Amino acid sequence: MGIKVSLGEFKRIYRRSSPAVVLPKFDIFKQTEHATAYFGLLADVTKFCGYNGWVILIDEVELMGRLGKVARLKAYQNLNWLLNWSKEQKYPIYTLAAVANRLQDDIWFGKNYNDRDIMPELAQERFGEKEKEEIKSFFSKAISEQCLNVAPVTDKELAQLLDKVALLHNKAYSWQSEIPFNSLELIKGQGNQPVRTYIRAAIETLDMQYLYKEDIQLNTTELVEQELTEDHDFFVENDKQD
How far is Cα 26 from Cα 34, in angstroms, rounded to an integer? Predict the structure, then answer.
């Protein structure tokens, strides 16, 4: 998290600034263990700079499902702290987390794991009864009505979006297509895809029509999203204990 300074360099800096004071012993910063201290420091700096607080948007929370068991527990604990669901976090941090349904379907309700049962028991084993109850409370809140669900977009709504994209494309290039842009037909040919894939398909179709003045049937099934990979270096130490 940022530029790391070696312990030797840190001691040299300390001796120059405080030559008469012996450097106290302290733990080496570890991202997996001291994440709350890191976020707290940045929140204080944000406040010091004159802002009212720090708003954090955490997207694709479902990626924590790729972590090992112990690392997932730590991630749940950190998220619980950032969301301040336990009312223990006193920093001016305001957090919004976005999660795909597959986190619940695959990880929480037993398709791949059953974290709603596994994590409280693991928390009790490693940290005690208090942490067990906190994790149980975290899952209860996460599936409650206070966490809003975004309904899937309908074909009609998506078609309206793509029609707007077509209008913006016409305006950007100062052209008017003689070939009708059929957004519903484009959607039907793609099956179930992320919204961004439909937008890419619409733009590429419009580009082809603009360049070649022909009715181009773009094979947008090739516009698959690249697999996202996680950097597991942060969690190596914990995963060895799974």
Answer: 13
What is the number of other CB atoms lying within 10 angstroms of the CB of residue 198? 22
Do 202 and 100 share a structural domain? no
What does residue 58 show for φ and ψ, rounded to 5 degrees?
A: -110, 110
178 domain residue, yes or no: yes
Per-residue pLDDT tens digits for 93-121: 999 999 988 888 889 987 778 999 999 99
Residue 96 φ then ψ, to 5° = -125, 125
Structure tokens at 11: 């001691």
Question: Which residue do the tokens 């730590």 mark?
Answer: 74
The count of domains in the chain is 2
CA 240 to chain centre: 24
Q: Are residues 86 and 163 in the same domain?
A: no
**Residue pLDDT, tens place only, 51-100:** 999 999 999 999 998 899 999 999 999 999 999 999 989 999 999 999 98
Domain shared by 143 and 160, yes or no: no
